From TrEMBL:
Stretches that traverse the bilayer: none
GO MF, any single term: N-acetyltransferase activity
PANTHER family to which the protein is assigned, alphabetical: ALCOHOL O-ACETYLTRANSFERASE 1-RELATED (PTHR28037)
InterPro entries for this protein: Alcohol_O-acetyltransferase (IPR052058), Atf2/Sli1-like (IPR010828), CAT-like_dom_sf (IPR023213)
Signal peptide: none
Protein name: Alcohol acetyltransferase
Gene3D superfamilies linked to this entry: Chloramphenicol acetyltransferase-like domain
Pfam family, one: AATase
Amino acid sequence: MGSQGETHAALRRLAPIELYSSVRHSMGLYLSVTVTCRYTAPSPGQRIDAALLYPALARVVSAQPMLRVGIRGQDTNEAAYCHVKAMDLARHASFKTLDACACETMDQYNQQIALLQGWHHSQTWPNLDDIPPWCIVVVQPGTATGQDELSTVQDILFSFHHALLDGISGKLFHESLLRELNHQLHQEAANATSSRHLQLPDAPKLPEAQDHVITFTNSTSYLIRTLWNELGPSMLHASKPIPWHSKAIDFAMAYVTLTKAVDVPGPVVTKLLQACRDHHTTITGLFHALTLASLAARLPADKAPSFAATTPIGLRPFLGPSADPELKPLLRVLVTSYNHEFPPALVAQLRASSNADETTWRIAQRVKDELKARMATMPNDDINGLMKYNSDWFGFFKKKDGQPRPDSWEVSNIGVFPPSPDPGFAVSRVYFTNGAMVTGSPLALGLGSVAGGPLSVSISWQKDVVEQDLVDGLAGDLAQFVTRFGETGRFAAG
């Protein structure tokens, strides 16, 4: 590693979307994204240990420039990626065996993973100009357990600074690591100590900034409307209902992320997917609708007359002709988002509906149609095309302290983990979470699934911003909805 205080050469300035996350980290408003995959061993007793991990991880890191850069000047609006010339992978990878008494069953083990994931979301990245801000933890249940289902599993938690990568990149990282682990299984035993030390004298060629390879174009009307909403006098703005957002933005609250999982078994996922096709929607649209159904039932109409939500959208399909073909597969940040509104009339209709399933499916279709229409016009009139005009992200965020949050929840779907073509380890679960968003949604749902296998729905939130009872109720509702659907084909009872 570079010595403390050593100045590393700047590679390029952070793009606006990357600076957006760098500033949030510097201000303690959002610290990391985490994607944890469950690695199932080919036979009992087979384990991912240092000798297997380090050479495989070294090849992944060597192939991915964004995993071997630091961030210089993170406390400024001019932050830049910098060249880290040497890495000790032991500073990025660790091994953890959980207390056997705390994970005697798979459900208990999953709860421990959720706790660990929340803890990682609550940690800042140190020495950013010297140490690339990401880490993995290889986790396994304690050896005292006699449960067969736990005897062949380990989870690898991958946590990273959002200025380096997006959620889909987190899944792609695991795809690469799985491939390299299975390759390493058939090689001669490696020296773990030598494999963990990487010498990187040549500066990496970084993937291009998002706004350099996505052709954002903004109409005059969109530009004027957006700037007016952001900068115009509030007294001249049209009155607009504020959606339920739990509590106002409060920078003074301790930054502690909590996470909770709802696991949907593979056969139920198959049934849900078919039902989504039959109702012309998607799993993303469905979980927006189910979340709305739960919160509308649990929150009184006078406190929650309306809701709003966000869906992140991956921009990889929209890379323009200027994008370097060799850099297209690299892990990076390529993301925007779309906002959905659930106005008072729609929420009141849901609350009063005598056919909750029909209304839920109609809302799920509405979300899907909105996303389809947005995708058809991408990348025109997108907020990312205006981010370059903001020269002070610190000032931008400081103004939000004390203001209402913009929406009620987020549903982010990183998609399906494909089956491995290679013999050896396989991934059997994907648990994807966002850190608590101090200036964003009070609730974040992360969706990740395995081909032909389970779907894991995560819920993450900032401690004390959302009441534990409400989160437990939402998780219980989602679990009950999908379980009942698997048994009866309906979400609602009766």
